[in-house]
Amino acid sequence: MTDLKTFLSQQRAIFTVAHPKSQALAGKASAWRSGVPMHWMRDWATPFPIYVQSAKQATLTDVDGHAYDDFCLGDTPSMFGHARLELVAAIAKQAGEGVGFMLPTPLANEVGDLLRERFHMAQWQVATTASDANRAVIRWARALTKRDKILVFDGCYHGMVDDCFVALKDGVASNKTGLIGQVIDQARTTKVIPFNDVQALAKALSEGDVAAVLAEPVMTNCGMIQPIDGFNETLRELCTQYGSILILDETHTLSSGPSGYAGAHNLKPDMFVVGKAIAGGIPAAVWGVTSEIAARMDAAQQEIGAGQSGIGTTLSGNALVIAAIKTMLTEVMTPTAYDYMLKGATYLVEGLRTVIAHHKLPWCVVHVGARAELIFAPEAPQNAEAMRDHLDHDLLEAFHLYLINRGVLIAPFHNMMLISPQTGFDAIDRLVAAVDAFSQELNS
């Protein structure tokens, strides 16, 4: 019987033989820190990076000529497909008319109205990334409430936001392990509690010092964790009761429907953030606020007076981004596209659950909207601590690399899979077949 480490070694050898051009390019990348332009590009299970030649619709092709069914989709920026012709045309047109003016174009008003109509927030701002947007809303929440602390859930990720790099260690809030260059203890101003723990949530908010709760309505960054029945509604009620601002980060859960998870489930955040896919992969994020919050922001700004707010960057809201967002909202992120994506995700989940049942595997599948996750646990964990018990690094690496060797890409972080409106059901069948083959080889 082949053990897991031997199996993993075999898969690495298969990959290396099949990717000589990528290996050669990786060997010449010493100018890049970690050998890549952004070090996350090394977080895949491969011995060296796959170098991409091109991507169209839901297929990615590497420099060695291998085509992959892409269920990663850039970890969400390309959720609606690669090289969308609608987006290509809009970007080319705007590039020919200028990109950055630090002034609005006529399209800006259209985009603001489209965002208001779709996501039901009264006023909006554009940021360059969801990290920037989350930093902005945290700053505003502190200004409006005159409270220092925010609350996040254990296992969260909200971009490169210092305040959020806090986790529970033996039940105590601590800076996350591996946090580079941190000079203060973030737990002084950030509370962290388990997701789905209503009692802990009520206690933390009742102390009256939390400016804002920053949350995904479904946790997606430590393995997918669904809210228990009524949790998001209780979160809303408790934030109202104790005067804390509720911020929903829907950068991933935008896959739930045209208005995100909040729209699909009638949630009522005070502030709303979405990045990555909102401009089709062009670096951009948007954040919106209710009319009540907007009025409080006006009052706070008047109280402070003129001066540099420290919120915003020069490239935010540039003309290219505005053109891209308009195209996404009007031509790409359509109800028809979402209908297809949701049907595809249901088809994928049914296929994965059939494989699990056939092989009697102690695994499960969790999914929200067009996003699914295969979890190496018999039941879906309800918080990050329970999820961590099932994140077997060697098994995850072997699984990811096996899929890659069979021409299938899923997100490199745990087992997230995303369906685009350009993902063929035949591609879904190939993904399910690859999982089935992996299960057979694992059992043997």
Care to give the gist of this entry?
This protein is of the alpha/beta class. Helix content is 41%, strand content 16%. The chain has two domains: 4-80 and 335-443, Alpha-Beta Complex (Aspartate Aminotransferase, domain 1); 85-332, Aspartate Aminotransferase, domain 2.
Description:
A hairpin with a 2-residue loop joins strand 1 and strand 2 (59-62). The chain folds into two domains: 4-80 and 335-443, Aspartate Aminotransferase, domain 1 (Alpha-Beta Complex), CATH 3.90.1150; 85-332, Type I PLP-dependent aspartate aminotransferase-like (Major domain) (Aspartate Aminotransferase, domain 2, 3-Layer(aba) Sandwich). The strands form four sheets. It has a seven-stranded mixed beta sheet with strand order 4-12-11-10-9-5-8, with helices on both faces. Strands 1-2-3-15 form a four-stranded mixed beta sheet. It has helices at residues 4-18, 20-26, 85-97, 106-119, 130-145, 198-206, 231-242, 260-265, 291-304, 319-332, 335-359, 384-388, 393-405, 425-443; strands spanning 52-56, 59-62, 67-70, 123-127, 149-153, 166-169, 172-175, 190-193, 210-215, 245-249, 271-274, 285-289, 364-368, 371-375, 408-409, 416-418. It has 444 residues and is of the alpha/beta class. The radius of gyration is 22 Å and the shape is globular. It holds the Pfam family Aminotran_3. Keywords: Pyridoxal phosphate.
